[in-house]
Structures are given as structure tokens and as C-alpha cells.
Amino acid sequence: MAMTRAGERAPTAAEMELIADAAYRRIPERLAALVHDVVIRIEEFPDDDVAREMTLESDYDLLGLYSGVSLDRQSVSDVRENVDMIFLYRRPIIDYWAETGETLEAVLRHVLIHEIGHHFGLSDEEMERIEEEA
User: Fold this and answer.
1) Helix, strand or coil for residue 87?
2) pLDDT 10s digits, 31-50
3) Of 119, 121, 57, 47, nearest in space to 86 by CA
4) Distances (CA, A) of 67 to 38, 39, 40, 45, 87
């Protein structure tokens, strides 16, 4: 397993899933109360379609991605074909974690808040305020 800052071992996908679950339980209540059916998945990197669609210069440019229809665009008459998901990209997150000195749970919490904010149609400024309040 790859070593990261100060000799710490990079978590496996299963370990990161546990840390992400703990981070999710610590997101601000006003966001957590609104999220019911979002699935969180750990992937190594964004897939080729995502990289192309987001015009990523590197697979390390994206830490997470909300996939689905945000609540501000959903209609009761729409038939949902897929479940809403938040993808957390393990390798880019590990690099970011190693560079920043933040705890991995803090990094994951930040990414989750950002992606849940997109789920609800919040701006980056609104998400920053929510994080500062927490």
C-alpha cells in the first residue's frame, strides 16, 4: 500500500468508505436532514466519460462528483431511472490529504458537503458558509 505524509499508509477503498461514513455523520445537520437516498461510492479515479465531460487535465483534478438530479430540478412527475450518488475519488483525495496536512476525515467531510450542496443546488459560496458555521 502506498505511503503518504509522515509515513502514514494510504487507506484502502474499504477503509476510506468507513472514514467517509464517519465524515458524513459529521456534516452540518441542516444538510444531513435533507439527504435521504444518496449513495456514497469510493472509486479510484473518475472514469473516462467523467474526465472527458469535465475536461479534466489530470485524473487527479477531481475529488468527488454528485451524479443525479438535484432536488431543485426534480419533478414529482419524473420517473427516476437511477439512484443519486456521490462519488469520492480515492487517489486524488489521498494526494490532496497528503499535501494539505488536514485529517482525511476533514477532507472527506469537505468533499461531501460540497457534493451534497450540489445535490441541493447550492452555490460554492453558500457551501463555504455552511462549512464555516459547522
Assistant:
1) strand
2) 887 777 788 999 999 999 99
3) 119
4) 9, 10, 10, 15, 8
Sign of CA dihedral 118, 14, 27, 30: positive
Note the pLDDT of residue 134: 66
* Architecture of the CATH domain 10-69+82-133: 2-Layer Sandwich (3.30)
Q: Is the pLDDT of residue 104 over 80?
A: yes
Indicate the pLDDT class of residue 90, thresholds 50, 70 and 90.
very high
Which cell numbers hold the place of 21?
A: 461514513
Q: Which of 127, 102, 116, 113 is nearest to 35 (CA)?
A: 116
Residue among 107, 109, 89 nearest 98 (CA)? 107
